[in-house]
Amino acid sequence: MLRRQFIHRTALSMLTGAAGSLLPKAGLATVDSWKSAFAEALDNNPWLLAFRSTTSDSFAADADLEGRIPEGLTGTFYRNGPARHEIGDFRYHHWFDGDGMMQAWRIQPDGVTHSARMITTRKYLAETDAGRALYPGFASVPPDPKPVTSADSVNVANISVLPHHGKLYALWEAGSPWEVDPADLSTRGLHAFSTETEGLPFSAHPRVEPDGTLWNFGYVSAAKKLVFWHISPKGQLVKAGLIDCDPIAPVHDFVVTERYLVMLIPPLNFEPTGGGSFLDQHQWHPEQPTRVLVVDKNDFSRHRFFELPAQWVFHYGNAWEDEAGIIRFDAARAPDPMAMIDSFRVIMRGQVVPDGGSFHHQYRLDPTRGTVEETPLLDQGTSSEFPTIDPRVIGRRYSRIVMLTRSSSAEHEMLNEVSSLNLDSGSLDTYRYPDGVIPEEHLYVPRRDLAPETGGWVVGTGLNYRKEQTELRIFDADRLADGPVAIAALPYALPMGLHAKFV
Amino acid sequence: MTLIRNLIARTLPVRTGLRLILICAGIVTQPAFAADLDVTIRGIHSATGMLMIAVVNSEAAFNGEAPAVLSLLLAPREGAVSFSTDALPEGDYGIRVMHDENGNGDMDSNMVGMPTEPWGFSNNAMGSFGPPGWSDVRFTLDGSASTTIDLNR
Predict the structure, then answer these.
(1) What domains can be seen in chain A, in order of their start residue?
(2) Which of A162, B17, B116, B133 lies 20 to 30 Å (CA to CA) from residue A348?
């Protein structure tokens, strides 16, 4: 009944986008105990500092440098991520609910400077002004919540960063990009590519080809549609299109090949009950397949679904088509979305619930036979996440994946290594972070004068929770195991972030 | 249009301090048991374009399958505007407000039908994962009623 009613309403017209017009049935009358529970847990588990709410709305410092900046490496390493996890007495119930903070690590021959600033979204400003949480988020519902009137009214711009055509954007995944000043990191406003596409979801993982051509997607849960974006190197909308996707899931990332856009749609189905948060409107169906959607770049209406056993993927490395037309891609494959549904929720009150982990796999999709094969890429027991590649080989044949891994125990519960995997030789080059430091996503930063995937550096940040400082490390990309050639340490600790880009 | 002009000329069923652009009333004669309705619309962020207001008295009319009993086009001003009418008989009503900011005569929406201009409903109804329904917006006009609608975007 609910379903029929829902479809009827959808057919009328959708008032709101991916987050839906979320009117929780009943908020809690008083603020709950999550904030005090976390504070108590942090006293006993210092590594939970990674999830502490930011202590300031802006930061700036010259980093303390150990080692030397390699010759030829200059540029800015931008990182975004959830940072304000608490407002007033309320602490969010999910890692992904924190308001976004943009960081810039500027690497020059003589040193590294850092700055960071909260992204002043509508939600951030309204809640800062009120001194309390006002709106439901991705997985949190504060007491006496206000209704969500549009996805962008609760767009916290907290997942990733996109440099494109001289502009810088902070990305959420269910609403519009927020434009940020690349120099002083102040927030300029919501960006619309056209009137027709205003307010439509723009995922946190656009793929930008070497010539600047940008592809992206977004999920519109309430309408059970996926939107696909094609943006020119100059930032102009070339085309946008909708594809029906029923059931629909909160798809996080995708890959591109020369001709196709490819994504997994796990059976975490949007089945709204109307109560609770956006995440609460989803049901995991392990008995259903994970669909693989392949879309023609030239014509979004030309697309096809394939099937895999139920599984969850946050992130992919890359994809390409071989001579026989086989589409190959890699991803951090998890058996289910329990990390998102459980672990990243209860961690906010300081509880650790191990999830099944994610393990890097290579996929071979044969469009002619209609089959998809998956093969593990790392030793059994080595978990991985945050795969990144040389940005110059996006959508083309590639051999190098840089990612975070974990093959041995650590004092904390997060990934504790950075690894470079050579897909051709199968060799794995790994640096194990010292206990006391939690690495964040690392990037492969190529040398512009060398051929793709040769030489260059791996650059990444991490939280040293023992010294209570955030640090940036630079590695020779071919010699990760040797350890960093430089470490730039800040005089403060930042909440653990999500995605980064280097320009 | 002639009919509407005659209608406005004969009896103006709406009072407002604002420039009234157009009224289209489904009720031609003054009802026997007229009630007073006062409506305030808040959260207007610009004085451009026009406010499109529809007062409906049935689910069919709310869903656009039957005419509204009263349609108004008001010149907006920043902040709030009000209007009142005693032309409506007692009964159940709902109100739909759209702010056509760019004045193109339409409620602009994106590819999936999400409005890209401000909107609001009586009872400040929001709906859940979709627009509100008749039961969410319905209120009873019994002698007199005043209602405030906050525009959203």
Answers:
(1) 2-502 (2.130.10.10)
(2) A162
